[in-house]
Protein 1
Amino acid sequence: MVDSSEVMQYILMEEFPGFSINSGTGVYWELRAAVKKENASIIKEINPAIAAISTDELNQLRQKWFWYKEPKPEFQWLYQISPVLLLLCFAIYYFYSQGVRLKALSVKDELTSQLNRRGINKSLRLAYSLFLRANINFSIIIIDIDHFKVINDKHGHLEGDNVLKSLSQLLQHQLRNSDTLGRWGGEEFMIICFNTELNDAVAIAERLRATIEKDMKVDGKSLTASFGIADIESSPGAGIDNLIRVADERLYQAKMSGRNRCIPDLASCEA
């Protein structure tokens, strides 16, 4: 028979692995048998067997009942380095997310949240690559706000910034999903129209021009813009730089011809 407190400790250790108990100090114990009253005669057979147990065997029983040694984890080294691994994973994630964010910011215009010139150039290279590989034509539209310097001089740069942001939002809402909008610089925007012939790009530009004149006001007067349009297939010469040069020339002609108009070719401003 063993003291009830020792039995309780043993039960706890059996039910909860890893539960550490040290009961080996100052514990008196004696190994005895207990049976029901009607089986009292069995004691006469059990007691001699208990008496025959050697000291080593008794110590083994004592270790099992009164001393519990917490096992060491097989992968204890993993617990030791896991904080380092966790910190390393966090650092990797942090720098990766920051890199993604910085990469996104590097091609975004801070004021309008549209692509900046760098982002537009990347999209232009993609469109030109598709043209060279699959002969998929594309057009560009360069938009310049008319008399924007007057707005800045009269109302200040904050108002000028508001005009740029409002125009950016209007253009974005009017474009197709396949079109790419960006701020080309200053008061100029560029639209890349993928898989779009020149005539279709002219129709898009004319619709945008009319919408800007109708919906955007400054000092109660309509805001207007001029448009230069070119497509890669019909532009003389070759390459992205030449395409931009042609669109710029047509934008300049739109300005010189009275502003608030779309110029898809030089002949249109002479007619």
Protein 2
Amino acid sequence: MLVLWGTPYRRRYNFKLSNGVMSKLLSILSLAILSGCASQPLDDVEIAKVEVVEDVLFYEGELNEESINIALDKAQGHQIKRININSPGGEVTSSMMFANWIRSNGIDVEVNEMCFSSCANYVFPAGVNKYVSEKDFIGWHGSAHQKYEKLPDPDAEKSFQKYIAKARVMETKFYKSLGVNSKLPIMGQVDGYSCQVHDEWGWYYSVSDLKKLGVDNIVLTDGHWDPSHYHSKKLCQLILPEKV
């Protein structure tokens, strides 16, 4: 499995991004393997906190098959209109399947503190409307289409290549169905951009730049959202030209 997140983080995701956001986010990112992606087994999966309140599905934690199945089971019999999510990311194909369910059911996505990695790659753009408050952080650091180092074990490499080929096909279809630029989750690794060319672990976009990539219908619940104050030596703002 390919897991996109900052780290195998084993605790509740009660992030307080208004104060000390960078220290907490960097503690997650500091254990990242490779350039923003980690390929690892989910032997010790932490089940996300999931609940349904009226027409809102609340999801707090890692994105993995087990937790997503629980979320879908709880959603049965409810007319879910919005996903309220706080997640550092997780397994790629499961996240895409969850995102496809969100879009096919016409559901909105509301970020609650953090939406990073696979959450930002797939869940966030899948929302018909995307609700973001001033305190929220949304960040990217790679996807199934990024470059990977060859694994030393031949059998592991063979299995990985089979998995990544499937994930890449899914990802291509996913972004095409949304009308989103497929470079959204890897733009910071492309030549010509500074993010992740050196030591940076991830990046974020402005609302206007997200629109250039096809991520639209972003609703700013506080009337404004400026993620630039999350800037650090390890996270940078990726600024796009007028035409992408």
